[in-house]
Amino acid sequence: MATDDDDDDDDDDNDDDDDTCLVGLFFTGIFSLDCTLLNVYQRRVIWQNLRLLSRMSNSFPTECLSESKAFELPLEILSDAQPLKRDIKEAFYEMAIQAFNIFIQDTFQSTWEEKHLRQLQIGLDEQLRYLEQCLEEEEEENEDMKEMEEEERKHSRDTVSQLSNLELRRYFNRIDKFLKDKKYSHCAWEIVRAELKRCFYFFYKFTALLSRK
Amino acid sequence: MLALLGVATLMLVAGAPWVLPEAAEGTNLKPPENGEVSIIDDSFTLKWNRSGGYFKNVTFSAEYQTPGMGNWRKLLGCQYVTRTECSFSSLHLRSVYENIKLRIRAEKGNSTSQWHEVPPFVPFKKAQIGPPDVRLKAEDKAIIVNISPPGTKDSTMWAMDQSNFLYSLVIWENSSSLEERTESVYSRDKIYRLSPETTYCLKVRAELRSSRKFGVYSPVSCITTTVEHKLPSPENIEISAENQIYVLKWDYTFENMTDMTFQAQWLHAFLKKIPGDHSDKWKQIPNCENVRTTRCVFPQSVFSKGIYSIRVRAADGNTTSLWSEEKKFNTEMQTVIFPPVIHVKLIGEDSLRVSIGAPEESENKSGYQLYPLIYEVVFRENTSNAERRVLEKRTDFTFPNLKPLTVYCVKARALVESNRWNKSSVFSDTVCEETKPGNTSKAWLIAGICTAVFSIVVVIYVVKALLRCVSYVFFPSSKPPSTIDECFSEKPLRNLLLSTSEEQTERCFIIENTSTVTTIEETDQIGEDYKKYSSQTSRDSGNYSNEDENSGSKISEGLLQEEPV
Q1: Which of B240, B265, B320, B451 could form a disulfide with B315 if both were Cys (CB 3.0 to 4.6 A apart)?
Q2: Biased composition, Acidic residues: where in the chain (chain A) (predicted)?
């Protein structure tokens, strides 16, 4: 059962200084995660990344308002009833990986502090890895079923799920082109940052969908 | 007749072109059919079939249209081609995620056929991932792979996927192709656990998992591992957290360890996903440079929250070993879970309510909050060793129906709610609480009733006994003791002696003073007889039992009656 104290999640300093005399316990893997609790983890990590995005800059510079553009976030992809849990995972993964792609480019060193950027990159990577691991697991489970069912379901499933991924890609493609056209200016980055905050918030609201079966 | 002949020949001449096969095309050129597109990386291949057989000097041209473009545009590389296929690249397409329409027609000289339209498609969806380019470098027990993403650097098809590619690598020993190993690698990675001086062959394919695309395998490339390195590399790197430090340990065996020193480095794990060389980004871990033991200790503040790769190597004077296998390390997973704080409260007389709270120190830690916790509660009676273990998700719950006047002790620890991860805190302090003497009213009621009943019975007996005593003393019985009966066998005498209970005085009549008496008695005689009878009767009513008395009185009466005559 997760508690809903999302607003208190994460704080500014990542240093763990005040431990008391307790022995931590060792474990082997990097993510010994339970994929049945994926929605809980995603919820927290997306919120954490949203806060990191907010903290990167003090406030939206007013001179950039004139350049803002409507990117048309495809809200319908998650509000429609998605039949398969895998498709929802894929949508979250697509979002995470495209956001990661945007923030690993080297073209904004002057815009934001390196420290904040690094934290965001780490956070996005974390978000990605959870999903990767769970998608891989699911694929392993489906290996046997694949051959039997793939013939029947291939076409119908592809059209529904891949359509939402396509919509997401078109959205991120628009953002990419915008950055290129504006030559990665400071204002362009600020506008993209604001847009991604909206996107993250939207996905944060829909993390509950990951738990549906 | 001649006119008829002329007309006939004219018709023949006019009709000749129809008959000849070459003239079959004419103005009605048939459009091509079955147009198909296949895409690998950035190159599109358009194929079609001729219709109506093979004809000379026929060429084909194609055009394309995307939404928002308005009119059809010529497709470069597909103009006036003689074969039934042509290729073009996506590099001049605006977007690979847009629907695209293609159409082809046949041409011969000045005449053209109708357009044949290919069903519209989204290039990205149709595209297949081509084979990646693989370069290898061998170490003694590992192979370094350097994989270039499919397509070109400025590829439009995979522009948004440069960091998304995951590579599936199949490796086998050249001599025995049976034992294959498949591994998932990044673009710059290492395959470990190989044997020295062995030839290995491998092939790689790129994958885009989220788009469900699996690429074509690269051609097989082989390489031989080198001779075993003089110094082995450290193995089995382990890292654990303690208080405010991390402890890094590894295994190392070598004949002469006296001058051996070790060095440990770290790197942000996500950098591996970004294509390119990041070998210059490895950083030294403080306190872990030139250490002589197979462990080193450094403060937790070195690593802010995140995922890191760690590697270690050994050095002996001038020679250094190769780097060890990289160990991934997630700071989140190392955070200590603090034991909870328990409060136990007595509810009613036989229930204990347990509330679990988070300890104060954990409020500031962002680490463990990421994972939902469940609690293992151990509940036992103070005197016995029998324990009851309960797993609870709630932080407030009650143990009902406990024994009265017993001390119960509770302790709990927090666990991460996960099937495969056994991370828990240490147990909290034990809190004990005593239950009240239980159910006094009921017990007393029953006891009271029992004692009351018992006491009533006792009292009755006592009272009875007392009464008997009292009655014996103050109200003795009239019955004589049985010994006297033996002495006096005659009844009348007995009667005289013992008939004390009779009221004989009432029956005493005056006999001697007859004159006065007789007159009185005469007058009264009748009355007296009457009286006697009546008195007799009346007396009889009182003394039925005593026959002897009656007979006694009758004798006196008899005497009385004889006189007056």
Answers
A1: B320
A2: 139-150
The answer to whether the Cβ–Cβ distance between A169 and B124 falls below 8 Å is: yes
- Cβ separation of B159 and A24 shorter than 8 Å? no
- Cβ pair B420:A31 closer than 8 A: no
| Selected residue of B126, B208, B210 to mutate for chain A interface (largest A Cβ count, 10 A) | B210
Q: Cβ contacts (< 8 Å) between A139 and chain B: which residues? A: 209
What are the backbone angles phi and psi of residue B112, rounded to the nearest 5°?
-130, 155
How far is Cα B191 from Cα B203, in angstroms, rounded to an integer? 13
Point out the residue among B307, B369, B417 whose CB comes nearest to the CB of A126.
B307
Tell if the CB–CB gap between B163 and A18 is shorter than 8 Å: no
Would the pLDDT of B274 be above 70?
yes
**Which residues of B are less than 8 Å from A119 in CB distance?**
304-306
* Phi, psi dihedrals of residue A191, rounded to the nearest 5°: -65, -40
Confirm if A94 and A168 have CB atoms less than 8 A apart.
Answer: yes
**Secondary structure element (H or E) that encloses residue B173, with its range:** strand B166-173
Residue B430 token pair: 């034990």
Q: Where are the beta strands (DSSP E) in B269-424?
A: 283-291, 295-299, 307-316, 319-320, 327-330, 341-347, 351-357, 373-381, 387-392, 396-399, 407-416
E strand or H helix at B46: strand B43-49
The full set of domains in chain A, from first to last, is: 91-141+162-212 (1.20.1250.10)
- pTM attached to this predicted model: 0.67
- The predicted-structure confidence for A67-126, as pLDDT tens digits, reads as follows 888 888 888 777 666 556 677 888 889 999 999 999 888 766 566 778 888 889 999 998
Residues of A in contact with B332 (CB under 8 A): 126
pLDDT in tens, B529-555: 444 444 444 444 444 444 444 444 444
Chain B residue nearest residue A129, CA to CA:
B270
pLDDT at B250 over 90: yes
